[in-house]
Amino acid sequence: DGSMCALCPVPGGIVARVQPPSRWTVEWGATGTHAHVCCANNLPEVAVHVYSPTAGPIVDMSKVKNSRMALACGLCGLPGGGVQCSMKNCFQGFHPLCARAAGTERLYVGTDQEGP
Q1: From edge to edge, which strands make up the β-sheet containing 15-18?
Q2: What value, to the nearest 5°, has the Cα angle with vertex 20 and ends 10 and 41?
Q3: Which of 16, 31, 82, 93 has its CB surrounded by the most CB atoms within 10 Å?
Q4: What totals of helices (H) and strands (E) does the chain contain, helices first?
Q5: Per-residue pLDDT of the chain (116 residues; tens, 9 = 90+)
């Protein structure tokens, strides 16, 4: 499916065009031409460009490293554009939308506050 996310296996959602197309082959069959805006916004090496208020955003994945795409999601088990836990000595990876679907909350360690 041409609108499957190049970064995660979660179907549907708001996707944007990836330019240039992703160079990775992923297990869920995405063609690499689209990515969830949520996934793109959560990966520091992915840029989301808005060139015009009337045109959709363009996602640039050209700086994504092999290690990012090899990181397996601890929730769905598939590798792909996941993020890694920021807790000390925790190396668990997960796709942002898998975490959202699982009801995971963002907590700030060392404080009594929950994240936004």
Answers
A1: 34-36, 15-18, 58-60, 47-49
A2: 45
A3: 82
A4: 3, 6
A5: 568 999 999 999 999 999 999 999 999 999 999 999 999 999 999 999 999 889 889 999 999 999 999 999 999 999 999 998 888 888 889 999 998 888 876 654 444 444 44
